[in-house]
């Protein structure tokens, strides 16, 4: 599909029923939510896409939150959706929230998976860094060496697999799960990552953002894994601000809770989406 400024985006649809549009994490990654689609596509019509500059989409900017919101709306229009549910993971959860705040009339429900709330990242990032290093364990030295230097594409993949392995509670299978995330390897867009993260540092955690969340008249389900290395209390700020919110915490699961508790994840999300009209 093409955006209004002529950038090609990869998108796909599966299943039948009420429409749900997924937004993957990152920024700068590609769609990693095919397993989630498999859990839900018997009940809803799932729309997935690679964000601008990422994965199978055209690798060009500009990269910003506003541009990401506009691209999400382009996906909506491409599939002819007047109204849709949204499911976002990690950075994608922030993106779906931003979209809902700007276009609440186009959003029927919002599933906010493994996000980090609306406070500034500095409030939780130190805890995250400490947990990240603890979970990488024996690979920490290699991860630090790769982080500190210019890397080849193969080294980018190795670096990401080590880092992503920290996101799983099931430590004996963490590298296996991370390898699956990196296969096929579509290459991280670090320029996109840096641009959007820098913008979020300036704009997240403001009184205006909290006030907007307090007025959001859209049902929201927050889902997070109890063992996510991003502290669960980081998302409390969002839960406390939203007027129509429920929350599910899946024990024994990390940052990708559908991987380690697929049945619990499916039950929570499909139940929430069951009332779509």
Automatic annotation (TrEMBL):
A single MF term (Gene Ontology): aminopeptidase activity
SUPFAM superfamilies xref list: alpha/beta-Hydrolases (SSF53474)
EC number: 3.4.11.5
Alphabetic keyword roster: Aminopeptidase, Hydrolase, Protease
Entry keyword Nucleus: no
Signal peptide: none
Superkingdom classification of source: Bacteria
Alphabetized Pfam families for the sequence: Abhydrolase_1
UniProt name for this protein: Proline iminopeptidase
């Amino acid at each position: 599909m093409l955006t209004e400024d002529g950038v090609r985006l990869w998108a796909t649809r599966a299943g039948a029923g009420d429409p749900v549009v997924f937004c993957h994490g990152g920024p700068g990654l590609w769609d990693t939510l095919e397993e989630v689609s498999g859990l839900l596509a018997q009940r809803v019509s799932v729309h997935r896409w690679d964000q601008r500059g990422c994965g199978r989409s055209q690798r060009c900017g500009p990269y910003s939150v506003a541009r990401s919101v506009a691209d999400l709306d382009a996906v909506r229009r491409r599939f002819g959706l007047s109204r849709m549910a949204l499911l976002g993971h990690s950075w994608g959860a922030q993106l779906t929230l931003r979209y809902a705040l700007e276009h609440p009339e186009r959003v029927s429900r919002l599933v906010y998976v493994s996000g980090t709330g609306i406070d500034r990242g500095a409030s939780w990032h130190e805890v995250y860094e400490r947990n990240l290093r603890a979970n990488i364990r024996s690979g920490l030295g290699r991860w630090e060496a790769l982080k500190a230097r210019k890397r080849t594409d193969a080294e980018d993949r190795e670096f990401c697999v080590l880092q992503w392995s920290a996101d799983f509670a099931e430590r004996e299978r963490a590298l296996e799960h991370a390898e699956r995330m990196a296969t096929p390897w579509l290459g991280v867009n670090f320029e996109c990552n840096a641009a959007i993260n820098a913008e979020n540092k300036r704009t997240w955690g403001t009184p205006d953002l909290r006030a907007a969340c307090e007025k959001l008249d859209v049902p929201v389900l927050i889902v997070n894994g109890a063992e996510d290395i991003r502290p669960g209390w980081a998302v409390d700020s969002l839960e406390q601000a939203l007027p129509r919110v429920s929350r599910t915490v899946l024990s024994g699961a990390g940052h990708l809770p559908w991987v380690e508790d697929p049945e619990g994840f499916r039950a929570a999300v499909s139940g929430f989406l069951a009332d779509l009209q």
